């Protein structure tokens, strides 16, 4: 190996060491959202590496949305809350490359949303119920507004349910999958002549889910998630995938229209 090659390899190992260490400290809880990393100069001293390697490590950590830094900020990079952004990017690449199809995403969403609703019914607090009621009132108020505005309120309903479920991994993956599905199907909805019918169906579904969550009926809330997703997306998939979706509905004790 040439001297240039050895230098490049050493620099790669140096910045990866910083990235891996920061990731491990975030994963362990040693670093929490709102904490600060040391300054660039302190990182150079701590890891015994060149400033260029430290800067590369910080660029990678920022691209992963784990930290945010500002030029000439003496306080050091800020540790950010964990979000679904990296998962969304990965799903976006997989869907755009056709590695993952719409039917696969919808089937995964059926599993995640059903589990979210089940846990939300068991763990919801009075505050969650109030937030859901306010969200549904907002959706009713947006019935004659654009579908983009209504869609944001629809996603908010699911975000409240995910918070009530109290399962961070389910929340992260659920958020990413819902947005990936919406991105693939949104234009079809926007081009449809019956947008108001779509909105009314969402409101009726959310009302039924709210009633089940409020009653602590996890089985009903889980069933409603899968039945609704089947109704929304069955016409957008092939026969084989539709059969799988119907089986997922049946597993929760639900039924599908012939």
From TrEMBL:
PROSITE patterns registered for this protein in UniProt: HTH_GNTR
Domain of life: Bacteria
Gene3D superfamilies: GntR ligand-binding domain-like, Winged helix-like DNA-binding domain superfamily/Winged helix DNA-binding domain
Signal peptide span: none
Keyword terms, alphabetized: DNA-binding, Transcription, Transcription regulation
GO molecular function: DNA binding; DNA-binding transcription factor activity
UniProt-listed InterPro entries: GntR_C (IPR011711), TF_FadR/GntR_C (IPR008920), Tscrpt_reg_HTH_GntR (IPR000524), WH-like_DNA-bd_sf (IPR036388), WH_DNA-bd_sf (IPR036390)
Residue intervals of the HTH gntR-type domain: 12-82
Transcription is among the record's keywords: yes
Alphabetized PANTHER family for the sequence: TRANSCRIPTIONAL REGULATOR, GNTR FAMILY (PTHR43537), UXU OPERON TRANSCRIPTIONAL REGULATOR (PTHR43537:SF5)
Protein name: DNA-binding FadR family transcriptional regulator
Organism of this sequence: Actinomycetospora succinea
């Amino acid at each position: 190996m040439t001297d240039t090659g050895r230098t490049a390899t050493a620099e790669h190992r140096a910045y990866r060491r910083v990235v891996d260490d920061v990731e491990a400290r975030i994963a362990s809880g040693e670093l929490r959202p709102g904490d600060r990393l040391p300054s660039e100069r302190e990182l150079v001293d701590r890891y015994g590496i060149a400033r260029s390697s430290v800067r590369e490590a910080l660029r990678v950590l920022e691209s992963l949305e784990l930290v945010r830094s500002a030029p000439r900020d003496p306080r050091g990079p800020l540790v950010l809350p964990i979000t679904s952004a990296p998962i969304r990017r990965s799903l976006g690449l997989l869907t755009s490359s056709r590695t993952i199809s719409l039917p696969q995403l919808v089937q995964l969403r059926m599993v995640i949303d059903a589990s979210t609703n089940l846990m939300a019914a068991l763990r919801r607090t009075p505050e969650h119920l109030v937030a859901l009621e306010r969200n549904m009132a907002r959706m009713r108020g947006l019935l004659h507004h654009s579908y983009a505005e209504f869609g944001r309120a629809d996603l908010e309903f699911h975000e409240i349910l995910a918070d009530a479920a109290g399962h961070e991994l389910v929340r992260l993956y659920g958020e990413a999958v819902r947005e990936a599905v919406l991105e693939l199907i949104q234009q079809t909805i926007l081009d449809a002549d019956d947008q108001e019918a779509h909105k009314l169906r969402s409101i009726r579904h959310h009302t039924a889910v709210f009633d089940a969550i409020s009653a602590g009926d996890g089985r009903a809330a889980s069933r409603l998630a899968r039945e609704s997703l089947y109704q929304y997306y069955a016409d957008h998939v092939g026969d084989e995938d539709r059969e799988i979706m119907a089986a997922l509905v049946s597993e929760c004790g639900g039924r599908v229209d012939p």
